[in-house]
Structures are given as structure tokens and as C-alpha cells.
């Protein structure tokens, strides 16, 4: 089998990998649940390549992510649920339906009718999805229905926690459940921090976890108020920490010492040095 620019070749490769008689033993052992973590990982690696503005890596990571889509579609085809063509058909229908101002008639292209169209489109999609779930025997959402009766039911719980908190808060804010200034949010953060301190002092593990969750949720609220994506902010903080910690390790190694042999005071001094490096200096 030879490489190709056509998606059909990738589908053929995946089918061959899953062939019961001649396929790859590892691939034959996989199912939706075992592949799902790789799917999430590949999506993050795409985001990482974009953040680093690395087009070589981005091309490769997009291919790896596309492979995940093909993989899940192959598993579904084997189960008789749907195939890759159904996936493409579904998303093309959705894009055409959701953009009547681009693909619709003259009336649909009217900017003034955009909101009316959007509400109708969402209702149609919910009804179609509910019908599909019923036909396939698939589970309904947390509310036990696909009618979208509860305001927050439309927010998928599949997102990382910080992103999920942000999306839930935005959805709640749409109907006015929101602070009108940053002051009360900061006060709430102070309140949650104090409650966390009390729970920790009482050595109550369950309460400590709950209070930490409340604190993080409040911090996300502050981030949202200032139009900061908390997932992006935390990620950049972690990368900055990794860079500065790497500087400490490099400086210690240059003097013939290891991290394990260094005292906390030495590492703190190097940490300060890492923070005061000229911008752009490698660490």
C-alpha cells in the first residue's frame, strides 16, 4: 500500500490495521474507550503546535488527529453504527444549516434574520439528535432528555475542568446570572480561600476538596470577567514554571551539582535569577 493525498487511502489503511485475519495485533485490541485518551492527547498536541507557531509539527499533529477520527469511524462501522462517510455527511449538513447567511437563499442571507435562524437551527438539531438517539438506543443527556429544557444541559461535560467551568459560567451569564463588577468576585475568592483554610485545618479531606473546587470556580469567574481564558493562562504559567525550573537544573549542572544535592535556599536563589533573566533568554 502506498501513501496518498486522498482520505480514502487513510480509511483503507485503518481498515487493514483492523482486519481480523491480517491486521495489527495492537490495533485489533482497541475499542472506543482505549482510543479516546489518544484522541484527547492529539487535540492538545495540535493546540501546542499552534501555540509554538510550528507549522511542521502542526501538519503532523493534524494528521494524527485526523487518524483518530478515522479510527473511531472504523470502530463504529464494525459495530454497524455509522461510518466515516456518515461523519462527513453529518458535519457538512451542520455547516450548511448553521450558515444560511452564506449557503441559503436571499432571505436567509439577511443579517437581520440571523438570530431567528440560529434559534430555529438549534431546535432542529436537538430534535434530530433526539430522534437518532431513540432510533439507536443511545443514552440521553444528564436531564434524561434531548429537548434542552434545562439551560445548562447544552454544555458538554467532556471539557477539561477549567474550560468546563468557563463555559458553564458563560451560559449562566446569558440569562443574567452574573456579577456586574469584579469586586464581588474577588470578595468571593477571599471567602472561599478562608473556607478552604478552615477545612484544611480541620483535616477534613472531603470538605477541603469541595472548598478547593469552589475556590477554583471563583477564580475562573474572575478570569471570565476580565476576558481571560483560564485554561490558556494556567498552561502558560506551567510552561513558564517548567522553563524556570529547567534554568535551575542547568545552572546547578554547570557547577557539577544535581537538583537532589541542592538546598531549597540555593534553588530559590536560582529561581529569582531565572525570573530576572533578560526576555528571550533560554533556560
From TrEMBL:
InterPro entries: MazG-like_dom (IPR004518), NTP-PPase_MazG-like_C (IPR048011), NTP-PPase_MazG-like_N (IPR048015), NTP_PyrPHydrolase_MazG (IPR011551). It is an enzyme of class 3 (hydrolase). Coiled coil: none annotated. Residues 30-103, 186-244 form the NTP pyrophosphohydrolase MazG-like domain. GO terms for biological process: dATP catabolic process; dGTP catabolic process; dTTP catabolic process; dUTP catabolic process; response to stress; TTP catabolic process; UTP catabolic process. Keywords: Hydrolase. It catalyses: ATP + H2O = AMP + diphosphate + H(+). CDD domains: NTP-PPase_MazG_Cterm, NTP-PPase_MazG_Nterm. It holds the Pfam family MazG. Its EC number is 3.6.1.8. It comes from the Bacteria. GO terms for molecular function: ATP diphosphatase activity. Belongs to the nucleoside triphosphate pyrophosphohydrolase family. This is Nucleoside triphosphate pyrophosphohydrolase. It comes from Aurantimonas endophytica.
